């Protein structure tokens, strides 16, 4: 916790010009309505629901919910919960960066 921007490590496997262009486009979005418009065009409904489910799983794991509670509330499989948990514990700290910023806004 309390990491600075420089502490977050970029995954070299996803660093491409196309991904850079996508992220630059995302950074232009100003509010939730614009996010809905953009992501509904870019993603299928199932892709968007999968992304939101993984985010919800991560949030609930950080709130110390059990796998059973998370599976019941989100419909995520234990395999998905386990993968998200692995990202939280051994990933690039992207989830925690966002959680910290959201907490700071409260």
From TrEMBL:
Checking InterPro entries in the record gives: Trp_repress, Trp_repressor/repl_initiator, TrpR-like_sf, YecD_YerC
| Domain of life of the native organism | Bacteria
Q: Kindly give the SUPFAM superfamilies that the UniProt entry links to this protein.
A: TrpR-like
User: Which terms does the record give in the GO molecular function aspect?
Assistant: DNA-binding transcription factor activity; sequence-specific DNA binding
Q: What is this protein called?
A: TrpR protein YerC/YecD
């Amino acid at each position: 916790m309390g990491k600075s921007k420089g502490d977050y490590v970029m995954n070299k496997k996803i660093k491409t010009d196309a991904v850079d262009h996508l992220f630059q486009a995302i950074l232009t979005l100003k509010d939730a309505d614009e996010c809905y418009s953009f992501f509904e065009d870019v993603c299928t409904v199932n892709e968007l629901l999968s992304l939101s489910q993984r985010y919800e799983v991560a949030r609930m794991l950080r709130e110390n919910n059990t796998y059973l509670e998370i599976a019941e509330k989100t419909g995520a499989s234990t395999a998905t919960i386990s993968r998200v948990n692995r990202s939280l514990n051994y990933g690039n700290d992207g989830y925690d960066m966002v959680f910290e910023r959201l907490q700071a806004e409260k």
